[in-house]
Design brief:
Residues 203-448 form the RIO kinase domain. It comes from Ibidorhyncha struthersii. It catalyses: L-seryl-[protein] + ATP = O-phospho-L-seryl-[protein] + ADP + H(+); L-threonyl-[protein] + ATP = O-phospho-L-threonyl-[protein] + ADP + H(+). This protein has 13 helices and 11 strands. By secondary structure, the chain is of the alpha+beta class. Among the domains are: 142-206, no CATH class; 213-346, 2-Layer Sandwich (Phosphorylase Kinase, domain 1); 348-479, Transferase(Phosphotransferase), domain 1 (Orthogonal Bundle), CATH 1.10.510.10. Strands 3-4-5-7-6 form a 5-stranded antiparallel sheet, with helices on both faces. The protein has a two-stranded antiparallel sheet with strand order 1-2. Strand 8 (341-342) and strand 9 (345-346) form a beta hairpin. Helix 11 crosses helix 12 (439-447). The longest helix has 31 residues, at 56-86. The termini are far apart. The relative contact order is 0.07. Residues 39-54, 104-129, 205-211 and 486-495 have low confidence and may be disordered. It binds adenosine-5'-diphosphate and manganese (II) ion (MN). The site of manganese (II) ion has 3 residues, from loops. Manganese (II) ion (MN) binds next to loops.
């Protein structure tokens, strides 16, 4: 006999309607879940989803990420309801406290937009006016000191702008809100502690999979691609570089009719560990296409920018008819493109393939042509061209790895081009191609310049002088020199 007496088993009474609606709700939810995640989930047999090195902690992570997605959807629903209830009413209610995702967890990855143009930021408030160092402004009886209550209050309101962007401060400036020092300090304290909390959470997430090929967020992205049917299976990793990991996948069906997914795809995942990208700044920071955007972006966005750059550059090349991977889709820092190779075997790099001297000569002529097209038609310099980034497939050379490519007017564009030329010349001269131009001739042939210096040092100096001239011109006239824009016809070398 239980010393505390028998438990009271009378059931709580509730109305039939309640039960009915709850059941209905459950059914609806189940239906929805089933639609989103069919019973038999076709999962790639890649090393990151199933396979021998199965890791339950990362499965847990995956589950948590999925849960987060659900929570976000829940919140979106809340927001819709909130809007419906509030309508145009002057007094509004807020469901903020019922939201599942803490505002700090909902980082930029929640947006399904792959790229947001940040060049124009309509939301940036004007700089708050501050009183100068001397502590007062105005003269005579119009003098206002920095201790003035109104000025101080406004200043505090304006300073809220400095809180983390996720911290919702409302439109205090627009309302001419005056915050007392006490309130401002309390808010500041809160903003900082929240920021720290979020940082801790984040750190945990990143570190838990530091040794894995891809982080949980990327895994979720890939998982979604397979789940949506766009990719059939992700078979495995082709390459792990310093800055990217490349996977092979079999293509599936596109959601839209007009788009055809290639039978085999390469997935290039730009690594989100930031260290490796630091020394690449110079490629993008000085690229005027990205100039204004660079400084305002957080590191995660900068990595997405590399992926975006590769996509744009590949598209330009595709349009010019240069053999290169075809872009399938860009999702954040993951670029899906057509696979160069067959049956999961990637085409060999030019450095690894043994070609007959005839093929070698053919390859050289083709590359010379492609470099000219790249410069003239695509207005691009590859900037990492070498036998490592050229694949031999189908009896011709394919160019890959163009995330770092820049326009010739880039402040170091011509230096990059010269380096490319040196790599190409040296490779083909070593391979015994008699027709191969030396690096200086190649540079002139590609760019259309006519630099006559006959030694490396002078040549390099002239290149730098040209770059400087262009920079000065841009400074003074706001536009680049015409000779850079491909107007000065470089002779097209044909086979
Ligand atoms: P990284 O910046 O790491 O050098 P790459 O774009 O050069 O990135 O890709 C690394 C390797 O992955 C390449 O050397 C090539 O072997 C392979 N690879 C990349 N893209 C493709 C593709 N579209 N088809 C086949 N193999 C590819
Ligand atoms: Mn490469």
């Amino acid at each position: 006999q239980c010393p505390w007496g028998a438990p009271n088993t009378t059931s709580i009474s509730c109305s039939l309607a309640d039960v009915m609606s709850e059941q209905l709700a459950k059914e609806l939810q189940l239906e929805e879940e089933n639609a989103a995640f069919p019973e038999v989930v076709v999962v790639a047999e890649g090393p990151f989803i199933t396979g021998e090195n199965i890791d339950t902690s990362s499965d847990l992570m995956l589950a948590q990420m999925l849960q987060m997605e659900f929570d976000r959807e829940y919140d979106a629903q809340l927001r819709r309801e909130e809007k419906k209830i509030n309508g145009d009413s002057k007094v509004s209610i807020s469901f903020e406290n019922y939201r599942k995702v803490h505002p700090y967890d909902s980082d930029s990855s929640e947006d399904e937009v792959d790229w947001q143009d940040t060049r124009h930021d309509p939301y940036r408030a004007d700089k708050p006016t501050t009183t100068p160092r001397k502590g007062f402004i105005g003269k005579g009886k119009d003098i206002t000191t920095k201790h003035d209550e109104v000025v101080c209050g406004r200043k505090n309101t304006a300073r809220m702008e400095n809180f983390a962007p996720e911290f919702q401060v409302g439109d205090g400036i627009g309302m001419d809100l005056k915050l007392s020092n006490q309130v401002f300090n309390a808010l500041k304290q809160h903003a900082y502690s929240e920021e720290r909390r979020s940082a801790r959470l984040h750190e945990k997430k990143e570190h838990s999979t530091a040794e894995k090929a891809v982080d949980p967020k990327t895994r979720l992205l890939l998982y979604k691609m397979v789940n949506s049917g766009m990719l059939e299976t992700i078979t495995g990793c082709i390459s792990t570089g310093k800055e990217s990991v490349v996977f092979h996948a079999y293509g599936g069906k596109s959601a839209t009719e007009d788009k055809v997914i290639p039978p085999e795809c390469a997935i290039k995942v730009f690594k989100t560990t930031l260290n490796e990208f630091k020394n690449r700044d110079k490629y993008i920071k000085d690229d005027y296409r990205f100039k204004d955007r660079f400084s305002k972006l957080n590191p995660r966005k900068i990595i997405r920018m590399w992926a975006e750059k590769e996509m744009h550059n590949l598209t330009r090349m595709q349009n010019a008819g240069i053999p290169c991977p075809q872009v399938v889709i860009l999702k954040k820092h993951v670029l899906v493109m057509s696979f160069i190779g067959q049956d999961q075997v990637p085409a060999p790099k030019l450095k690894d393939v043994t070609l007959s001297s005839e093929d070698m000569k053919k390859a050289y002529c083709q590359i010379l042509n492609m470099m000219q097209q790249l410069y003239k038609e695509c207005n691009l310099v590859h900037a990492d061209l070498s036998e490592y980034n050229m694949l031999w497939h189908d009896g011709k050379v394919w160019l890959i790895d163009v995330s770092q490519s820049v326009e010739p007017t880039h402040p170091h564009g011509l230096e990059f081009l010269f380096r490319d030329c040196r790599n190409v010349s040296q490779f083909f001269q070593k391979a015994g191609v008699a027709e191969a131009l030396n690096e200086r001739e190649l540079f002139n042939a590609v760019s259309g310049f006519n630099i006559t210096a006959d030694n490396e040092v002078d040549f390099q100096a002239e290149i730098e002088a040209l770059e400087k001239m262009n920079e000065d011109h841009v400074q003074n006239h706001g536009k680049k020199l015409s000779m850079f824009s491909g107007d000065g016809d470089p002779p097209i070398y044909d086979e």
